[in-house]
What we know:
Helix content: 40-55%
Bound molecules: S-adenosyl-L-homocysteine
Structural class: alpha/beta
Shape: globular
Amino acid sequence: xxxxxxxxxxxxxxxxxxxxxxxxxxxxxxxxxxxxxxxxxxxxxxxxxxxxxxxxxxxxxxxxxxxxxxxxxxxxxxxxxxxxxxxxxxxxxxxxxxxxxxxxxxxxxxxxxxxxxxxxxxxxxxxxxxxxxxxxxxxxxxxxxxxxxxxxxxxxxxxxxxxxxxxxxxxxxxxxxxxxxxxxxxxxxxxxxxxxxxxxxxxxxxxxxxxxxxxxxxxxxxxxxxxxxxxxxxxxxxxxxxxxxxxxxxxxxxxxxx
Length: 258
Ligand code: SAH
């Protein structure tokens, strides 16, 4: 499609995709924490069916495919990410183990009821909301199947206004770990484990690779307002994280369907 035929909305989205496609991960995390979370899951065999929702370009899916048996179907809203995902899978010879498809997590998922052994979602469930995601996705899991998600979480009951306001305007469903664990139990899962991902998942694995991407992007699109505001927001997120990381971060939540 040429740029003249695109709406501003399409053009903005393709710029945002282009920016995030430059980096290996689109959210905080690391291969080590993905493996740590996988260590709690004990039911997987070569016949297992696994879903990875909001997979991005597939940083964590590659770790899943390399570390556990079974077939992974990964879903993301953005076709550009899925294209990169499937290209990477092929380059690594993992195309028979992991397949990316385009779809929205807010629609019914393209899986049979009670067909999945594991449903994974790193740094993405906020797009549907933690509670809604846990409740709606329960139907696709077999009894005894696992759900594993990472999610923005408060570490304390109270926090400075500046960071509170930032999260209330971007994702008001952020909550304390005990409250999220209670929501998981209410949604029909045994809360098997929860742990906070280390700071390096933000600093080394997410923010640092973005620095070069930000500089390159500003040079490529000088004066472009979408690019400038995207990068302003990215940089603000990093500044706020460094200032307030004692108060919030990402935690993994692992649950087993009852
Ligand atoms: N799991 C990846 C990406 C996290 S970023 C990682 O940890 O690196 C959040 C992802 O959710 C992005 O790839 C974004 O494209 C995707 N996303 C946003 N809204 C979505 C929706 N409605 N359905 C499916 N994916 C969505």
